[in-house]
Amino acid sequence: MLKPLLFATLAAVGNALFAYGQRGVTPPANPFLFIFGATAACMILLVGATLYYRTAGDGTYVSENLGMMGISGFGFFLTFVGFFLLYTNYGASQYALYAAISILTTSLVVGVWIYREDFNLYKAAAMVLAIAAIVLFTYGNSRGAG
């Protein structure tokens, strides 16, 4: 029961570090320069992790799953561009809006609708609250700082 919370926290800390780095740099003339550098650093770390966990079937795995890797790579690209536009134009405090929308797109569309994962009353309530968060956050943005 605590493992999903631990793994989600790990991903959340990684995301916070990404946001911290992106908000902490001076704005580049090329909007993708920072994301490219961050992704290159990530690739170096992933190469090390991949080599450490290397198995005999790696080549077959890659060839059989190249399409899905491409789809996920495109998803990373959209995420990075979305983060760049969101954080650069509106700040890291807008992450709550992204997170609430991600609950709907990832949990509901990918998890429940596409992969038919379990969905119960508590998860339905969480979806309703995510929609409420989006509405309230958008309303709060339209009302300004005061």
**Continuous helix count:** 5
Class inferred from helices and paired strands: mainly alpha
> What is the mean predicted local confidence, pLDDT?
89
When the domains are counted, the total is 2
Beta-strand content estimate:
under 5%
**What is the helical fraction, as a range of percent?**
over 70%
Q: What's the multimeric state?
A: single chain
The shape, in one word, is globular
SSE pattern, N- to C-terminal: HHHHH
User: Describe the biggest sheet?
Assistant: none
Describe this structure in words.
The N and C termini lie far apart (41 Å). With 146 residues, this protein is an all-alpha fold. 81% of the residues lie in helices and 0% in strands. The chain contains five helices and no strands. The model has no long low-confidence stretch (mean pLDDT 89). The protein is globular. The longest helix has 33 residues, at 58-90. Helix 4 packs antiparallel against helix 5.
Summarize the structure in short.
The protein has about 150 residues and is mostly helical. About 80% of the residues lie in helices and about 0% in strands.
Keyphrases for this structure?
single chain, 146 residues, mainly alpha
